[in-house]
Amino acid sequence: MTDILEIPVYNDAKKKIRQNLAAMFAKETLDIFDTDARLLALEISSPLKIGVGDKTPLFELPNAIGNTIAIKDLLNQGPVVITFYRGNWCPYCNLVLNTYQKILPEIKALGANLIAISPQTPDSSLDMKAKHDLGFEILSDSKNNIAKQFTTIIKNSKEAINEAKKLGIYFYDYYDNNSRDIPVPAVFVIDKNGTIVFAKSENGDYRLRVEPQDILDALSYIAE
Questions:
Q1: Which residue of 2, 49, 63, 141 shows the fewest CB atoms closer than 10 Å?
Q2: In what residue span(s) does the Thioredoxin domain sit (predicted)?
């Protein structure tokens, strides 16, 4: 494994971004988003549709430049880590993908590939990849046909969408339809034989994400 002095902790980074958001936006605005997250946590306590010991569905999806990426081809190279996220507009998605980028050398050293999947268009995925200089594939699952086999699909609330619009964030611009359907964030680690060895989603509260250390622990276990 490569030398990393300290594995990043998502929850620590989240505290900092919360401070930044509080400085940028009115309390009433943050309350709308936080209420949305709390309601989703109450509504969705067990988002996963597939778990440890199950075989991964096989799929092909376009990457940020429109090339088709097949999970079968990735599994031929070794284990695969999949993270499902909501979109560029979500600060917690930006934060967690940035955090996972920091452990990409460790993921690679353990023989694995990391891919991130959202229903965004390839152009929006390309913006995400470029903005954060991400070294892993960002795939577009426009109708959530793949995501719904792994995790729960929700409709983003109109209240959150309208509040974001007031801030200049146009939710629908990131997608090729107006369905409002987005996945509950989740992470899966799949061994080279296609068996899921790690599956986790905190709950419907999108502010909560899987810690990098959990991913590395799962990869280290199958590497032994």
A1: 2
A2: 50-224
The token pair that represents 43 in the structure block:
């509504």
List C-alpha distances in Å: 35 to 61, 106, 159.
33, 36, 10
CB 84 within 8 A of CB 206: no
Contacts of residue 212, defined as CB under 8 A and 6 or more positions apart, other chains included, come to 7, 8, 9, 10, 99, 100, 102, 103
Which DSSP letter does residue 209 get? -
10-223 CATH fold: Glutaredoxin (3.40.30)
Identify which of 153, 175, 208 has the alpha carbon closest to the alpha carbon of residue 18.
208
Tokens of 118: 């959202």
> Domain limits of the chain?
10-223
The CA R_g of the chain, rounded to the nearest whole Å, is 17
Q: Give residue-wise pLDDT tens across range 17-70.
A: 999 999 999 999 999 999 999 999 999 999 999 999 999 999 999 999 999 999
Torsion of CA 57, 62, 64, 66, to 10 degrees: 170
